[in-house]
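Table S4 entry, Two-component system response regulator CreB.
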Amino acid sequence: MAAQVLLLEDDPAIARTVAYALEREGLQVTHSLLLQDARSLWSAGGFDLLVLDVGLPDGSGLDLCREVRAAGHTPVLMLSAHGEELDRVLGLELGADDYLAKPFSPRELAARARALLRRAAAPPSSTSPPAQPPAPSATFYADRSGQRILLHNQALPLTRREYRLLSCLLAGAGRIHTRDALLSAAWGDDSESTDRTVDTHIKTLRAKLREVDPATDYIVTHRGMGYSLRV
C-alpha cells in the first residue's frame, strides 16, 4: 500500500510540483490549501508523512506541526520561503524532522521524504543503544515497549529524536557522547542533519527535563567534545 502524504501548501503551482515529485516515488498525496482543512484531514488519520508550508492565509504550518508532534511520531517535513537559521531552528524546536527552504529541488524534496518514511518504518537496529538505562540511573526509567522515558516517575513529552537522544545518553550515563555519535543514534547514517541540529534538540530536551526537575541540569555540555548525562 502506498504511503499517504498530507501536503499543506497554499501556492497551487508549488503544490502541483511537490505532488508530482512525491507521486513519482509511489506516494499518495492529499493536498490542502488551508490550515483548518489540513487540520481536519489530519484528525481523520491515516497519514504517514506531513509536508507543511509555514506561511498560510489562515495561520502557520508550524501550528499543525506542534499538534502533530504532541499526538505522536508521524514525520513532518517543513517548507518555507524563509531560509534564515532562526526559522529553521524554530521549526526543529517545534518537532519537525526536516526543513526545506524555498526555492527547492523537487528531487531533493522527494529524497528527503523517502528518507523520513524509511527511518520511520525501520525497526530498531541491533546496534541501537539500549533504551533501558543502567541501574545507577534510577531517577530515569525507560519503557522500551512504549517508547517513552520517565523522570521521577513522570513521562517526558519527547519527540522521536529527543527519545533517541536521551536513550543514547542514558545508555552511557556519565560518559561524553560526541555530536557525531548522537547524530548517528537519533538520525541514522543517511541523515543530512548537522551538529547544529543536535544542539537544537539538546536545548529542547534540556527544557523538558527542567520542567520536571527545575533544580537539576541533567545534560552537561563539554565544549568541543559533546554531551553527557548527569545521574
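Residues 105 and 138 are 48 Å apart (CA to CA).
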